[in-house]
Amino acid sequence: MAKVRKDKRGRNLHKGEYQRPDGRYAYAYKYNGKRVFIYDTDLASLRKKEQQIQADLIDGIRTYESSRLTLNDLFQVYMETKTNLKESTESNYRYLWEHYIQHESIAEKALSKIHKSDVKLLYAKLLQEGFASNSLESINNLIHPVLELAVDDDLIRKNPSNGVYREMKTNAPVQRIALTSEQEKHFLQYIESSPQYCSWLPLFVTLLGTGMRASECTGLVWDDIDFENNCIHVDHALIYRSIHGNAQWYISTLKTRNSVRTIPMISAVAQQLNFLYEKHIGKHAKPGPTLDGYHDFVFLNRFGQLINAHGIDRAIERIRTSYNDVESTRAKEYDRKPELLPHFTAHCLRHTFCTRLCECEKDLAVIQHLMGHSDIETTLTVYDHVSPNRLRKAMNSLDQAYVFCLL
What we know:
Shape: elongated
Radius of gyration: 29 Å
Largest sheet: 3 strands, antiparallel
Helix content: 40-55%
Order of helices and strands: EEEHHHHHHHHHHHEEEEEHHHHHH
Low-confidence stretches: 380-387
Distance between the termini: 102 Å
Structural class: mainly alpha
Number of strands: 8
């Protein structure tokens, strides 16, 4: 009969168990013909690990391999499987991973060691550093499918990121995402009256009167503007991004089917675009930029160059600062409280449009269509077919209720 191994305290050890000279316990087992070891300072804890290993072996969970692969390792595998990604999307995924995930402790952990608390800690840190909940969604849209790939490949039993983003989003502080009607009025009136900033008026009226994403708006060409039927066709976007180390302009198709849409023009938008078109015709002898077959861009800067969201954000900040300076001086003169503009970005103008639209339109399917939202939760309704008549009715209601208050 084989001699039973004992530990230093005289306790019998099971087959495969032994105690090292340093006092730690070890368990040896075979995986794919190789001898594998696990360790623990406590025998009871070691045996819990043994039970998990045996259960994993029976269920086909590749525990040994998951202990050798990190989240960073699996991200590289995940990206290799995404063969149909647009270059711009792939670049954005890698940028987000490299800047916000790659150097965090969770990314260097073995897959088998990642717990839900690790994901929560990362998301909490990002929110504390100023991430908006919708920006956090972009991070979750990377981490969750990478860990889901580990589940599909039998590296781990369950995805530790399940439900974390939803919980963090619910608990995240509400942030200002839309201008009030008064703030919107002050913003537009100041631009219209300013010799320095009045050239930006058509762009900002269009953003506030259509709810387009900044990249959709700056990508518009005159062929997208249908003056005869009084509508705007949205089917592409203009982006400026570093791809393979080369920063340049790109025309990008829209991410989802719902993003491709036709937006009826309210009168303020039609008026501004008509004004801009007449100006464009007058300068027709001077051709603008051409990109991927697109030319005659509607919105250009004062140098005749393309504009991106960052350029719009910088313009907003200059206008906001100038307005607040003037308003503070006037308020002091008239001994009243100044009506200052808060910090906001180009994307806040999209939320502002949606807010105004919801104030006068209750058909959520129409709102979802006009906003180009891809999922049901975004507009809190089941997606429904939206007819042109319903769209026109909604925009007519907005046209009557929307007060741009231009001079």
